[in-house]
């Protein structure tokens, strides 16, 4: 099987998995509950479609929100476009958080998005193995070096892939860099896994992921200038077909509160200048 066919199969499998996961979360969560759990069942459960990169802070928010309100937030994770295709197909769920607002622009004609709330910024960086053993720099042309193992993200699935494609096209390296890639990953998490398994020398990924405890032993970021890699706003949106719009708005309000934004900062989605600016508004 060729690499392209392998990728097409894996992406189709991922979409099926996302749909089944969302259906299971909504349809099966009440199964096998004893009578003593019925009081808890009166509280709605929210389904959030969340881009891979934002899952750790959103899990922490969901835990705090449930502790305060009794409302459980179930998180379905994946590449931002794959998640959109899953929610579009199922038309079930309550909230959507992609890796950039470009997904709202791209899909707004479908009419599924309602109110949105700002949660921070995603910014791209070159990512190398911990300690930078190859002595790599911020030069994007390194992505075309045949002596390096280059892992890039698919622009059709993950938000970092879409951002990577746009950046490489801007500097005239899109075709050469993708042709030189050892393989194409589906999302930011799989890029980091490539470094953990010593399969990668260099990649482009969201910088925030390099600060997380689970990834720090394996990766480090080489920052790119803002004129090349503009920070991308992160916004969470309600969904027009939500059966619990009031509760979804309640979660969005918590996520966008000072407490929620502090969680986002702790996971690398604000630098100090952005954090100060957010608090001045």
Automatic annotation (TrEMBL):
<feature type="signal peptide">
    <location>
        <begin position="1"/>
        <end position="30"/>
    </location>
</feature>
<feature type="binding site">
    <location>
        <position position="80"/>
    </location>
    <ligand>
        <name>molybdate</name>
    </ligand>
</feature>
<keyword id="KW-0732">Signal</keyword>
<dbReference type="InterPro" id="IPR050682">
    <property type="entry name" value="ModA/WtpA"/>
</dbReference>
<comment type="similarity">
    <text>Belongs to the bacterial solute-binding protein ModA family.</text>
</comment>
<protein>
    <submittedName>
        <fullName>ABC transporter substrate-binding protein</fullName>
    </submittedName>
</protein>
<dbReference type="GO" id="GO:0015689">
    <property type="term" value="P:molybdate ion transport"/>
</dbReference>
<dbReference type="Pfam" id="PF13531">
    <property type="entry name" value="SBP_bac_11"/>
</dbReference>
<dbReference type="GO" id="GO:0046872">
    <property type="term" value="F:metal ion binding"/>
</dbReference>
<dbReference type="InterPro" id="IPR005950">
    <property type="entry name" value="ModA"/>
</dbReference>
<dbReference type="GO" id="GO:0030973">
    <property type="term" value="F:molybdate ion binding"/>
</dbReference>
<keyword id="KW-0500">Molybdenum</keyword>
<keyword id="KW-0479">Metal-binding</keyword>
